[in-house]
Amino acid sequence: TRTVTVPCRNTDASFLSMTSNELEHLSVYPNPATADAHVTFSLNNASKVQFTVLDAVGRVVLSDAAEQMTAGNHQINFATSSLAAGIYHVVVTTETGKLTQQLSVVR
Predict the structure, then answer these.
(1) Contact residues for 58 (Cβ-Cβ < 8 A; gap 6+)
(2) Is the distance from CB of 1 to CB of 69 less than 8 angstroms?
(3) How far apart are the C-alpha atoms of 41 and 13, rounded to whole Å?
């Protein structure tokens, strides 16, 4: 398992969409989150992966550069402490699709 920690520069989950044949088991926890959140997922094949967090109106509030990742389990940790309370969409995108889950941030 590879862990990537993503700093927040600016700023059990509900399943929203699944359109990938190489990306599986997307989980965001804790949910709701107060200070930090963790995203776990599995890749069936090596792929470039982009991690993005969108606010309720679709604005990007957190994103990292696309990074080549190997097949297997991965975890991304990020701070939610600078995000306003509300509903966000966590999106993990690969070269062939994406998975999205909802995240609630509470204070």
Answers:
(1) none
(2) no
(3) 13
Q: Minimal CA–CA distance to 94: which of 27, 14, 26, 3? A: 26
Encode burial over 61-97: b for 16+ CB neighbours within 10 A, e otherwise: bbebeeeebeeeebebebbbeebeeeebbbbbbbeee
| Helical spans, DSSP H, in 9-98 | none
Number of Cβ within a 10 Å radius of residue 100: 20
Q: In the block, which residue shows the tokens 């062939």?
A: 96
Which tens digits make up the pLDDT trace of 6-25?
444 333 333 344 445 688 99
Residue 14 has a pLDDT of 39
User: 0.85 cut: is pTM over it?
Assistant: no
Nearest by Cα to 52 from 106, 103, 86: 103
Question: Distances from the Cα of 8 to the Cαs of 45, 49, 63, 76, in angstroms?
Answer: 28, 18, 8, 12
